[in-house]
Design brief:
Its cofactor is Ca(2+); heme b. The protein is an all-alpha fold and 324 residues long. It folds into two domains: 146 residues, Peroxidase, domain 1; 136 residues, Orthogonal Bundle (Peroxidase, domain 2), CATH 1.10.420.10. Strands 1-2 form a two-stranded antiparallel sheet. Helix 4 packs across helix 5 and helix 7 packs across helix 14.
């Protein structure tokens, strides 16, 4: 009987799908001993010289991980034979500083330990380091990801949250990746740093006077200020506004406090505060920054482990913008 049970268990093990790749905190301890120091030096220097790097890299990380997992596919450049993810419409506004800090880190690591550290691991650690630098919570990043082989712009549409989506659509995107509504709201707190381009919220502020009584999402003075700031957006599409106008360069819970005051930019931001599924968590994080930080750190750790590649499913790229 014991032998039969052992045979059945072995058969089930063979038939079962492979488990998530195992990642380790000290993955590069022997193969690249200076990994942590190089990453810290690179991210610190870049953030000091370009203060928008933290928000830019955080957004880049989201756009990488939410589409087919954290495999560095967002970093790949298009070729004559393939239009990559980074050239999909929603990714065209990803800031150059985010790509630059990854290139700098990869260059330094290739000199120290050639063909050892993946671009996916670099992006994950750079994001954590930069979030911490601007006041956000520290969280563990487990290492050993491989870089993916596939990056196609055609796979992006509908798989990344857009500010024009309704809350059900956004919740579904996260739910399909195993994230609860509460975790989705916590991750939305990333909007406490960074900015949004005027074209992403312009329709709401210019229609404000027509809908103010029935749909008072924007503080009226705030809407007027946004109209002035974005007045020339058609001629200058790079015009943008800080997501959190109170403490734009500090990672804190002011983003959540701003929502009920009508001081948010995007339609999706307003929906967080009005939808009964998400509003309780907005109120919770607005009232308790420590609770927000704990939830954000846990959700980021989970996201950084989502869909990682291992073994022959990936590689260690020599350059982050091209498959070997």
């Amino acid at each position: 009987m014991a032998v039969l049970v052992l045979v059945l268990l072995s058969a089930l093990a063979i038939l079962s799908p492979p488990s998530e790749a195992k990642l380790y905190r000290n993955f590069y301890q022997k193969t690249c001993p200076r990994f942590d120091q190089i990453m810290q030096d690179t991210t610190t220097n870049k953030q000091i010289n370009s203060p928008s790097t933290a928000a830019a890299t955080l957004r880049l990380f989201f756009h990488d991980c939410l589409l087919n997992g954290c495999d560095g596919s967002i970093l790949i450049s298009s070729t004559a034979f393939n239009t990559a993810e980074r050239d999909a419409d929603i990714n065209l506004s990803l800031p150059g500083d985010a790509f630059d800090v990854i290139v700098r880190a990869k260059t330094a690591l290739e000199l120290a330990c050639p063909n050892v550290v993946s671009c996916a691991d670099i992006l994950a650690v750079a994001t954590r380091n930069l979030v911490t630098m601007v006041g956000g919570p520290y969280y563990n990043v487990y290492l050993g990801r491989k870089d993916g082989f596939v990056s196609k712009s055609s796979t992006v549409e509908g798989n990344l949250p857009k500010p024009t989506m309704n809350m059900s659509q956004i919740i579904q995107i996260f739910a399909s990746r195993g994230f609860s509504v509460q975790q989705m709201v916590a991750l939305s707190g990333a909007h406490t740093i960074g900015f949004s381009h005027c074209k992403e919220f312009i329709s709401g502020i210019y229609n404000y006077s027509k809908v103010a009584k029935s749909d008072p999402q924007y503080n009226q003075r705030f809407a007027s200020a946004l109209q002035s700031a974005c007045a020339d957006y058609k001629n200058n599409p790079t015009l943008s506004v800080f997501n959190d106008i109170m403490t734009p360069n500090k990672f804190d819970n002011l983003y959540f406090q701003n929502l009920p005051k009508g001081l948010a930019l995007l339609k999706s931001d307003h929906a967080l505060n009005s939808d009964p599924r998400t509003k309780p968590f907005v109120q919770m994080y607005a009232a308790d920054q420590k609770m927000f930080f704990q939830a954000f750190a846990q959700a980021m750790e989970k996201l950084s482990n989502y869909g990682v590649k291992s073994g022959k499913a990936g590689e260690i790229r020599r350059r982050c913008d091209a498959i070997n």
